């Protein structure tokens, strides 16, 4: 007859052996995983090294691009600054060149206006003769250098009153005022002209 206590002890012993077997197997698998992971360490090291090297190259190239862009921007700004200064210097030189010419134009315009107004209004024959001489002097000389086409036309129309046309006092006054208006418009139009523009609105004599 079998002893129940003995059988129970055998079952416990068998279960204990199975548990130990499972633990041993589990330890073996863990060791194998550790060994497998250890085998990958050199590859992982190489990959990390390559990644670090690649990132270094990326940073270097990015820095080079940034430096080149900065240099190009600075060079463009310096070039634009030089061009702006050159334009400013050129404008200043042109204004300096035009200043005496415009001042002379202003003086001649006022002289012409004064002469025609004297001719049109004075009753003094000597004053009229003197103003007439001044008019023809300006007409055939100095005024030609600075007058516009409109001023030239107004001078010509007034001059006809002194020659081929028989102008009434009212007509002479009218032509005198027309000349003064042309002179005023010409002065306002030419005050800021460049040399190449100054000659555009001039009558060309052959």
Quick overview of this protein structure:
The chain is 86% helix and 0% strand. The chain has 206 residues and is mainly alpha-helical.
Task: Please bin the fraction of helical residues.
Answer: over 70%
Q: How many strand segments? A: 0
Secondary-structure class: mainly alpha
Which strand-content bin applies to the residues?
A: under 5%
**Unreliable segments of 5+ consecutive residues:** none
Tell me what you see in this structure:
The chain has 206 residues and is mainly alpha-helical. 86% of the residues lie in helices and 0% in strands. Helix 1 crosses helix 2 and helix 1 (4-121) runs antiparallel to helix 5. The chain is rod-shaped, with a radius of gyration of 53 Å. The termini are far apart. The mean pLDDT is 81.
What's the arrangement of secondary structure elements?
Elements: H1 4-121, H2 125-139, H3 142-146, H4 149-161, H5 169-190, H6 195-198
Helix pairs in contact: 1-2, 1-5, 4-5
Summary tags:
single chain; mainly alpha
């Amino acid at each position: 007859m079998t002893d129940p206590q003995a059988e129970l002890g055998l079952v416990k012993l068998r279960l204990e052996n199975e548990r130990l077997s499972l633990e041993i197997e589990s330890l073996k698998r863990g060791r194998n995983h550790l060994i497998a992971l250890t085998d990958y360490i050199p590859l992982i090291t190489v990959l990390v090294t390559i990644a670090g090297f690649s990132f270094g190259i990326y940073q270097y190239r990015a820095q080079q691009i940034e430096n080149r862009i900065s240099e190009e921007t600075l060079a463009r700004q310096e070039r634009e600054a030089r061009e702006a200064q050159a334009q400013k210097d050129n404008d200043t030189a042109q204004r300096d060149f035009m200043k005496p010419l415009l001042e002379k134009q202003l003086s001649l315009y006022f002289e012409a206006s004064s002469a025609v107004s004297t001719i049109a209004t004075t009753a003094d024959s000597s004053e009229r003769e003197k103003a007439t001489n001044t008019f023809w002097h300006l007409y055939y000389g100095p005024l030609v250098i600075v007058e516009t086409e409109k001023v030239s036309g107004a001078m010509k129309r007034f001059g006809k009153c002194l020659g081929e046309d028989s102008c009434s006092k009212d007509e002479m006054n009218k032509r005198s005022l027309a000349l003064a208006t042309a002179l005023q418009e010409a002065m306002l139009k030419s005050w800021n002209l460049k040399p190449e523009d100054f000659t555009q609105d001039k009558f060309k004599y052959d």
